[in-house]
Amino acid sequence: MRRIGAAFAALVLALPSAASADERILHYWSDVAVQKDSSIKVTETIDVRAEHDQINHGIFRDFPTWYRGPHGSRVHVGFTFEGATLDGASAPATTEPVSGGIRIKIGDPVHSARGAGWRFTLHIFETGLSRDIRRCDRWRHIR
Fold first, then answer.
1. Cβ–Cβ under 8 Å, residues 23 and 49
2. Helix, strand, or coil here: 141?
3. 16 in any annotated domain
4. Which partner from 15, 16, 66, 135 sits 20 to 30 angstroms from 92, CA to CA?
5. What does the pLDDT look like over 31-52, one tens digit per residue?
6. Distance of alpha carbon 101 from alpha carbon 62, whole angstroms
7. Does some domain include residue 41?
8. Residue 6: inside a domain, yes or no?
9. What's the pTM?
10. Number of domains in the chain
11. Alpha carbon of 4 to those of 10, 11, 131: distances in Å?
């Protein structure tokens, strides 16, 4: 009976450490360059702490491509994913449609990334934005 009690106590003491995985975004930077033709080049840098609890292979990022335009119309913007890096090296990445936009998945779906701290950098290009940036609804939808 003492062994069962000791095993149970060891299990209870181990649970808080396993349940307290601290996986989160540590830093997020977005460098947006508006071009003369109203297109934008965006470089996003995302520092992530991953303890292989929920985050094992990489991250995903959703970008809206449909917006509400003037008078309630729906406006679609062009979107091109130009690549991603993980800790400075080229990273496998895929895109897929999601409701209202595009999802980018960065990371190797088969192999787990190593280490706890990762830096992801995404390069995207968007077209079809308003020439009058003050009236562009896109800026209210950045996530």
1. yes
2. helix
3. no
4. 66
5. 999 988 889 999 999 999 888 7
6. 7
7. yes
8. no
9. 0.72
10. 1
11. 10, 10, 71
